[in-house]
């Protein structure tokens, strides 16, 4: 299977900030790779290098068969990019935004208008197509931005945190759009902070920390490294910890943890809902009162903490965050 994106040993620093530290990536044709990590991990810097917006200090990258450093114009002609913030002109209508992109790609006026109309229909924006984009909701602006990335029907798409800042309903809508693109054969590099997003969309996931890959695998493989699913029980009375621990021991696949406060127990399980049902029955039979009981899946923080030994550190845009546009500009 041909790799549509291949990066080897990418390094990029901004004075004392090491944004990329020998990053290797490979995305086979027709596959989705999710680059997973917290703010400051280097995801956006990697995207900027692969899309020719930044030159790496060292390393190499090939995108759609074209060398990023030797022929950046050739790469740009073969990719579609949707960044963290919707790149739309708020004074233009949705139709005019897409027409403008088409003209920039060299389409004639009639062809650009035809393509714009097709994409507005595909993304459910036809009714809003003649309205200024400043009147669009956040979800509509993100869809318009993604439509712009598809005007030239590129073989490679790069989506940098496409659902950050969206409400849950808009996020699900965007996932549906991305799944449609993937089913049509697109090769996709997706950066995200959300394990659920990577779980739903990606064939493979690379977790990065401080600009280097620290783990790779499917969502299930990564979650297995954190103990997979777990049952969490918050007891009404701390005195029942011993009895509750005995109930959980029957379903636990690993060590049962007693959290601070003395009344919350967490047990890794392999049986999912069956383990939860057994726990409920066991607690009822033992007469143990609970304040909360649930089956939890690993979060990004769980996976990241398990892999690195520390939690996410740099909030978005903070000083020293190598994925902050402000930081990069200040350090140039």
Describe the structure.
Among the domains are: about 5-80 and about 155-225, Rossmann fold, CATH 3.40.50; about 230-295, 2-Layer Sandwich (Alpha-Beta Plaits). It is of the alpha/beta class. Mean pLDDT is about 85; it is low at about 315-320 and about 325-330. Helix 6 links the parallel strand 7 (about 155-160) and strand 8. It contains 12 helices and 14 strands. It has helices at about 45-50, 70-75, 95-105, 110-120, 140-150, 170-185, 195-200, 220-225, 240-250, 275-285, 300-310, 325-330; strands spanning about 5-15, 15-30, 30-35, 60-65, 65, 80, 155-160, 185-190, 205-210, 210-215, 230-235, 255-260, 265-270, 290-295. It has a 6-stranded mixed beta sheet with strand order 6-7-8-3-9-10, sandwiched between helices. The chain has a 4-stranded antiparallel beta sheet with strand order 2-1-4-5. The chain starts with a strand and ends with a helix.
Short description:
It is a peripheral membrane protein. With 332 residues, this protein is of the alpha/beta class.
Overall radius of gyration: 23 Å
Numbering strands along the chain, what is their spatial order in the largest sheet?
6-7-8-3-9-10
In percent, how helical is the residue content?
25-40%
The amount of beta strand, in percent, is 25-35%
Q: Count the beta strands.
A: 14
- Global structural class: alpha/beta
CATH architecture of the domain at 3-78 and 154-224: 3-Layer(aba) Sandwich
Number of helices: 12
Major β-sheet, in short? 6 strands, mixed
- Morphology call: elongated
State the CATH class of the domain at 3-78 and 154-224. Answer: Alpha Beta
Q: Examine the coordinates and then state which fold CATH places here, giving the name of the CATH topology of the domain at 3-78 and 154-224.
A: Rossmann fold
What is the N-to-C order of secondary-structure elements (H for helix, E for strand)?
A: EEEHEEHEHHHEHEHEEHEHEEHEHH
GO molecular function, one term: ATP binding
Pfam families: ABC_tran
Family: Belongs to the ABC transporter superfamily. Drug exporter-1 (DrugE1) (TC 3.A.1.105) family.
Organism: Nocardioides acrostichi
């Amino acid at each position: 299977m041909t790799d549509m994106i291949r990066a080897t040993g990418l390094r990029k620093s901004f004075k004392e900030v090491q944004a990329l530290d020998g990053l290797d990536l490979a995305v086979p044709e027709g596959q989705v790779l999710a680059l997973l990590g917290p703010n400051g991990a280097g995801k956006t810097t990697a995207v900027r290098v692969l899309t020719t917006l930044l030159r790496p200090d060292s390393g190499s990258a090939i995108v759609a068969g074209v060398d990023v450093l030797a022929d950046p114009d050739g790469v740009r002609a073969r990719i579609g990019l949707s960044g963290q913030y919707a790149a739309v002109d708020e004074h233009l209508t949705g139709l005019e935004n897409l027409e403008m992109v088409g003209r920039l790609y060299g389409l004639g006026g009639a062809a650009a208008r035809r393509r714009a109309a097709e994409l507005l229909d595909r993304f459910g924006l036809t009714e809003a197509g003649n309205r200024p984009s400043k009147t669009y909701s956040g979800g509509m602006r993100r869809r318009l931005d993604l439509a712009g990335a598809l005007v030239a029907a590129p073989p490679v798409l790069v989506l940098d945190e496409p659902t950050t800042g969206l409400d849950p309903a808009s996020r699900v809508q965007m996932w549906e759009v991305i799944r449609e693109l993937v089913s049509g054969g697109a090769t996709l590099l997706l950066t995200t902070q959300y394990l659920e997003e990577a779980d739903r969309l990606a064939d493979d996931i690379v977790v990065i920390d401080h600009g280097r890959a620290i783990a790779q695998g499917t969502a299930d493989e990564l979650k297995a490294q954190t103990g997979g699913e777990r049952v969490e029980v918050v007891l009404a009375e701390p005195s029942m910890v011993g009895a509750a621990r005995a109930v959980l021991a029957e379903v636990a696949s690993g060590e049962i943890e007693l959290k601070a406060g003395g009344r919350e127990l967490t047990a890794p399980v392999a049986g999912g809902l069956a383990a939860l049902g057994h726990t409920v029955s066991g607690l009822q039979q033992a007469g143990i009162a609970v304040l909360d009981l649930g089956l939890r899946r690993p979060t990004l923080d769980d996976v990241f903490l398990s892999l690195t030994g520390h939690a996410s550190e740099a909030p978005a845009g903070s000083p020293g965050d190598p994925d902050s546009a402000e930081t990069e500009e200040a350090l140039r």
